Prior knowledge:
Elements: E1 9-14, H1 21-31, E2 34-37, H2 38-45, H3 51-60, H4 73-82, H5 87-110, E3 118-122, H6 126-129, E4 137-142, H7 145-154, H8 159-167, H9 172-178, E5 181-184, H10 192-208
Parallel strand pairs: 1-3, 1-4, 2-3, 4-5
Amino acid sequence: MGSGRRRPCVVGLTGGLASGKSSVARELARLGAAVLDADAVVHELYEPGAPGARAVRELFGEGVLDGRGGVDRGALAARIEREPKLLPRLNAAIHPLVRGRVRRWIDGLAARPEPPEVAVVEATLMIESGSYREYDVLAVVWCRPAQQLERALARGMPEERARTLLAGQMPLDEKRRLAHVVIDNSGSPEELPTRAEEAWAGIRGRCRAI
């Protein structure tokens, strides 16, 4: 990245269920990246009166809303599990809203007197949705499938739900083949800072070559 560049280099950070991408995102923030959690954006969009809540109400009715008029994510997830064919309709309604928020966040960073060198957007379904093509660099957090299941269960997720979610996601071995940078999170938590620092060096090198 040249010294005259105003727009941050934008990195898409993805992984899968319990792969550790949020932990990696925190490490990258520690190293100097600006970080946006796309799942947090969805939470905002699902608040009462927000565009996402209105879209969900139009698609699914009042049964997936809470008492305040926001989206009850548990009820919505249960509905999707019962009727998986509804998921593409939900994604078609919500993903454009998320992308709009992401673009405004990046524009805001670029407008700062001293924009950050690197901006990271963390999202689980980035590759599945096709939005990964919009980023300058794609970074994938990888671990073994058995570790994903083990970590999800350790968090208290029911095994049936964990297996269902894993079955609905692209395998990490496939995601890593599309990545510019792969962060191996198959080791211990103590190893992650070193892995993240290695990834940070790779990301910055890739960004500066753009």
